[in-house]
Amino acid sequence: xxxxxxxREKMNNTILLKCRNCGTKNxxxxxxxPSMPLCGxxxxxxxxxxxxxxxxxxxxxxxxxxxxxxxxxxxFWAPWCGPCRMxxxxxxxxxxxxxxxxxxxxxxSDENPTLAARYSIQGIPTLILFRDGKEIDRLIxxxxxxxxxxxxxxx
Length: 155
Ligand SMILES: [Zn+2]
Prior knowledge:
- This protein is an alpha/beta fold.
- The chain has two domains: about 10-50, CATH 2.30.30.380; about 50-150, Glutaredoxin (3-Layer(aba) Sandwich).
- About 25% of the residues lie in helices and about 25% in strands.
- It has a five-stranded mixed beta sheet, with helices on both faces. Strands 1-2 form a two-stranded antiparallel sheet.
- Strand 6 (about 125-130) and strand 7 (about 135-140) form a beta hairpin.
- The structure holds zinc ion.
- Zinc ion binds near residues 19, 22 and 44.
């Protein structure tokens, strides 16, 4: 069932970004993100996810969600699902506006039934929020913008 528990957290103005080149975790100030920070170890550009990332396999789920250093929401959806199509543009927008504070991933549950089963998806859309590789909350069904932002701990 939906957990409406809202965990109020300290405002934190830094995030950890894992370097895609060498794997080093870099602590970066949120207000420095627009200047494209570089990895402190290898000087590669640190990638800040600012649009939804498609999860196509177990390997993607591990790399993009379970090992991600910033909170990551996974949207289980399908193309035929009307409420999913309502949530899609909202999640695209949130991914851009809140880049660095949350990452959005998408799982097409028709094409990835194994992942949908693993996370006991009963209906779509279902949004699951992961932090440090663990599920901390899930939101079932389409929801208005404010409710989604609260669920994502963004307001
Ligand atoms: Zn690096």
